[in-house]
Amino acid sequence: MAILWESSEWWTDSSLANSCKPPVNFIGLITAQLDSQLVSALRQDGTVRTIAGKVKNRLADTTKTVSPRKLTPIPRQSLAAAVLERLRDKILSGELREGEQLRQDAIATEFQISRIPVREALSHLAAEGLITIVANRGAVVSALSPEEIMELFETRAVLECHMLRCAIPNMKPVDFQKAEGILKQFEESLEKDSEVKSWGSWNWNFHSTLYAPANRAFMLSYVKTLNINCDRYTRLHLVFTRDLHRAGQAHRELLDACKSRDPEIAAAALWKHITEAGEYLKEFIQRHREQHS
Question: Whose CA, among 22, 102, 115, 150, lies 20 to 30 Å from 249?
């Protein structure tokens, strides 16, 4: 009986009891392996009932002490992401002008946060090409020359035409329906001054819908960055010239070309759409800077 007591006492050890839970019929398993005469003696002695009581109490204690794991919800948007969005919008809208310095302490004070998320946001903006880190000045809003703007649009044309060629064979009716719906909302947005901030998003949503069937995730991500850099100049051009009908019509012609399901016809329409926009913007930005210099 002493041996049985010692061999069963390990269930009361706190470290093992927390990690190992004996089955409900634990006592039954013990008694099934013992000589019937020994079991009878143990039952008369009360030792089995004592062991069972200890195990039961220990399991009850363990259940009480183990609290359910608390789930920590992931915030929908981190501080850095929120700051990034606000600063990007200020740059794209022209509120932060080319060459303007972005001071971490001033931004942190404005948003009532620490400098850490501000540094993260500035790092993202630098990667997108919207700001430049200058020695002894810190972060400043990037200024592209008219030639660099044209080069940006040429780079877009090369990559996006390749993606569209890859996408056309994979396009399904649902892809055209989605692009049609986005284009309709984009055209409605162009008619409202209050929607200026969303023009860039609608433009990218439309183009990316056409490129998605190409299944080129890395290239699509890079092209998105190029579009973000182009967006501020496109917005500036639309706001000052009010050439809204032309913007909507160019996208309508592009969608019609895609519906032909001919990769070369679609790519030719896209090349024309992007390069003409680049040339137009190059001349517009040059005139705009000369007038405001």
Answer: 150
Task: Answer whether 0.70 is exceeded by the pTM.
Answer: no
- Class of CATH domain 146-291: mainly alpha
User: What residues does each domain of the chain span?
Assistant: 2-65, 79-141, 146-291
Q: Which residues pair with 102 in a beta bridge?
A: 139
Report which of 209, 138, 153 is spatially closest to residue 178, judged by C-alpha positions.
209
- The CATH T-level fold of domain 79-141 is Arc Repressor Mutant, subunit A (1.10.10)
- More confident site: 65 or 14: 65
- Residues 210-220: tens digit of each pLDDT: 999 999 999 99
φ and ψ at 46, to 5 degrees?
Answer: 90, 0
